[in-house]
Amino acid sequence: MGENGAGKSTLMNILCGTVMPDRGSFSTASGPVEPGSPGKSAGAGIGMVHQHPMCSSSLSVLDNIILGFEPRKHYFLTNRKEARKYIASLQEEYRIELDLDSPCSELNSVQIQNMELLHLLYLDRDILIFDEPTASLSEIGTEFFFSRLKRLKEEGKTIIFISHKLKEVFLMADEIAVMRKGKILLHKRAENLNPEEVASLMIGRKGDLSFPERERPEGENHGRRLYELKKTGYRKSESRFLENISLNIKEGEILGITGIRENGLELLEDIISGMIHPQEGKLYFNGRDVSRSGPAELRKMGISYVPADRLNRGISRDSSIAENLILLNYKRMHKMGVLIPSSVKRWTKEIQSTYSIEGEPQQPIRHLSGGNIQKVILSRELEEKPDLIIISEPSWGLDFNSRNRLHRELDRTAGRGTAILLISSDIDEILTLSDRIAVLYNGKVVMQKKRVETDRSMIGNAMLGLEVEP
């Protein structure tokens, strides 16, 4: 455990051989492992499901799983039939649903994570590292994932589990290690620790584990209707569709939309952000039909967007922190068509200080932790002072301190009159922030209520498609 930027992922990448340590060594039960060598780490039985798993988009799921370790027949031909049979048996044994013939480019983040797990199971790795594995999972998905981890543990696998979520760690872990600023401050048996002690070590002071109280009063009268979906529909496949979605949001209001992501949250995010256009129905912003408007046009109208897929949609990976932060306002820092470095550095440092973003302005953003990358995107969008913010899974990868700061900032932003369309599979986040809550199930809105009219149990039942009281 540790705050964003504490060094957790870097340490795990050292174990996997993808990062060379400056000094020191490590070993497994079978002996010392040569550092800086992915092959040697793999030979020692070490495998990792990364926080932001990636794949070869042009290959199928099957080919990604066996890539580099293809079973052979007649010395040089790939025995795909044998590979398919064995992987299918792993899918049945561990209850992992994936179409092995699907192109990787069509998978969502949860499916890619499952594909990486299948890859490790296919290779029979003994030491399994999971970096923030539950960040993109709903509560139901998290429970299922934990049951899978318990099964792996019973089979003798060693599991290293990186998480910011104290409840999950104390539920699953036998031992807990805490990192801060690149050092391990504590390593003890879980039964000899308590959450408050771990939180204090993580942030260097007493930590607040609760969600912050909202600053806006309940039942506040909001402004005029700003954004509306009218009978919106879209069908991508038999299992991925939206049907007859009607929602609206007013100035200064936070509308929380929740559900299991595969039940329509991802498609809804794509439609309202302009990434795809609805096949049925209309979208309106400020009374204007925006059903066919793309992301750039929506941004010019005053709509900001914080995507769930932060690496592919939210940042330029090969650019610096400063370059990513000024993407939307670089023209203000021009003189005679040339960027003024001192202005860029001063503004970047100010934003980094305000939002607690680690790193030097010229550091490549890809070297930041997932939580710090999220803070870069959030700060850039919030600083634009938009009329409407579309924000999807804002707390993914954030430690509890950063999460609380984010929630307070969103609450204040809504208090200033900005409408916030919040998409989240985290029920606690939805209940903390939202004025009204809508739940998607099987591509449809099955519940719409004011926050004060609902609770965690009612939302959970709606997410599962169970009957909810009107």
TrEMBL record:
<keyword id="KW-0813">Transport</keyword>
<keyword id="KW-0762">Sugar transport</keyword>
<feature type="region of interest" description="Disordered">
    <location>
        <begin position="26"/>
        <end position="45"/>
    </location>
</feature>
<dbReference type="InterPro" id="IPR027417">
    <property type="entry name" value="P-loop_NTPase"/>
</dbReference>
<feature type="domain" description="ABC transporter">
    <location>
        <begin position="1"/>
        <end position="206"/>
    </location>
</feature>
<dbReference type="GO" id="GO:0005524">
    <property type="term" value="F:ATP binding"/>
</dbReference>
<keyword id="KW-0067">ATP-binding</keyword>
<dbReference type="GO" id="GO:0016887">
    <property type="term" value="F:ATP hydrolysis activity"/>
</dbReference>
<dbReference type="InterPro" id="IPR050107">
    <property type="entry name" value="ABC_carbohydrate_import_ATPase"/>
</dbReference>
<dbReference type="InterPro" id="IPR003439">
    <property type="entry name" value="ABC_transporter-like_ATP-bd"/>
</dbReference>
<dbReference type="Pfam" id="PF00005">
    <property type="entry name" value="ABC_tran"/>
</dbReference>
<protein>
    <submittedName>
        <fullName>Simple sugar transport system ATP-binding protein</fullName>
    </submittedName>
</protein>
<dbReference type="InterPro" id="IPR017871">
    <property type="entry name" value="ABC_transporter-like_CS"/>
</dbReference>
<keyword id="KW-0547">Nucleotide-binding</keyword>
<feature type="domain" description="ABC transporter">
    <location>
        <begin position="224"/>
        <end position="467"/>
    </location>
</feature>
<dbReference type="InterPro" id="IPR003593">
    <property type="entry name" value="AAA+_ATPase"/>
</dbReference>
